[in-house]
Design a protein that fits this description.
four-stranded mixed sheet, three-stranded mixed sheet, 11 helices, globular
């Protein structure tokens, strides 16, 4: 049986889940900076974003501080949950139309790299709190590996979806059938590799995103030292040759990348403006220190989201954990 397509992220939401940095042993010196960045995100979501936020706290010791920060903030519901870390896009379920049901998948720590206690229970916890029945599927999938146009066209990467560390033996044909049954996929648009040093093995929500029917945003390299120049150009070249479920050529919106961003060991890390989050009233764009690149990316997004506020917020501390705003969130469609 084929499911109905997953709504596009720009469709109305009844709630937005967000993960709260809760584990000092994981975040170390970045815990408080990451919490400050997530607090700013949540306040933007319940303000101009016009969202109801379900903020999932993953450890009892972090509850009191989270409750104190958002005491009296309308629209924020603190959820006492358990997770290994905050990446709810990958560990939580994917909600269907009207949030009548949600699809849940097996999770193996991004191919066995980061297997943390409770992450494999997050989907069940979110299903219980939201009151949405889960349809469980016996294969490994992370929500950040896919992006949806609302009509059954799904963006993904071969590097992640066909990686033998997820589902050994998967081919494009097998993946397409599995996603048709679970998520209403009518057509998969296959990209190749993701960003350098991305421990998710190339999640597409760092690489290319639907921003309107038939329109995909993807980066263009920023600065001479951008380590992903060739990856971005390959993505654009591939997308320009593809069509959506209606047979229409994909249109591109190329936005500046953040350029070269290094970790404390001087290694490039997967910073991406593509990890923006589309809320009911705003698009919230992660930034990483280059104000010019961020401004131009936001100006580009404003052309396709004229009725939403475009809000740039820092995500430097969150990125030290491996992701950004889209990675730590999951929407419940209205």
């Amino acid at each position: 049986m084929t499911a109905s397509p997953i709504p596009a992220e720009w469709s109305p939401h009844r709630a937005m889940w967000v993960g709260w940095p809760s584990h000092g042993e994981l975040w170390e010196d970045n815990l408080e900076p990451a919490q400050a960045e997530v607090e700013a995100l949540v306040r933007a979501l319940v303000g101009p974003g016009r969202e109801r936020v379900r903020l999932m706290v993953g450890k009892p010791e972090a509850l009191a501080d989270a409750r104190a920060r958002f005491n009296g903030v309308k629209g924020v519901e603190i959820i006492d949950g358990r997770f290994g870390d905050i990446w709810l896009r990958d560990t939580g379920p994917i909600f269907g139309a009207g949030s009548a049901r949600a699809a849940a998948f097996r999770f193996n720590g991004w191919g066995g790299k980061y297997e943390l206690e409770h992450d494999d229970t997050v989907a069940a916890q979110i299903g219980a709190v939201s009151g949405v029945p889960l349809d469980r599927h016996d294969f490994i999938l992370e929500g950040g590996a896919l992006d949806h146009d609302g009509a059954g066209t799904i963006l993904t990467t071969r590097q992640c979806l066909l990686n033998p560390n997820r589902n050994p033996g998967w081919t494009e044909t097998i993946a397409e059938q599995a996603l048709a049954e679970a998520l209403g996929a009518r057509k998969l648009l296959w990209l190749g590799d993701g960003l350098l040093n991305d421990h998710t093995d190339g999640h597409v929500d760092n690489l290319a995103r639907f921003v309107a029917p038939g329109v995909v945003a993807c980066p263009v390299g920023w600065g001479r030292r951008d380590p992903n120049h060739e990856v971005y150009d390959a993505v654009a070249q591939t997308l320009s040759s593809l069509t959506n479920t209606e047979g229409r050529p994909v249109q591109l919106l190329r936005l500046p990348s953040p350029g070269l961003v290094l970790d404390e060991d001087e290694r490039p890390i997967p910073a991406s403006h593509m990890n923006f989050l589309i809320a009911n009233g705003a698009v919230i764009v992660p930034t990483y220190g280059d104000e010019a690149a961020a401004r131009l990316a936001c100006e580009g997004l404003a052309t396709v989201f004229p009725d939403r506020d475009i809000i740039a917020l820092p995500s430097i501390a969150i990125l030290t954990g491996g992701g950004s705003f889209h990675c730590i969130s999951q929407q419940e469609p209205a």
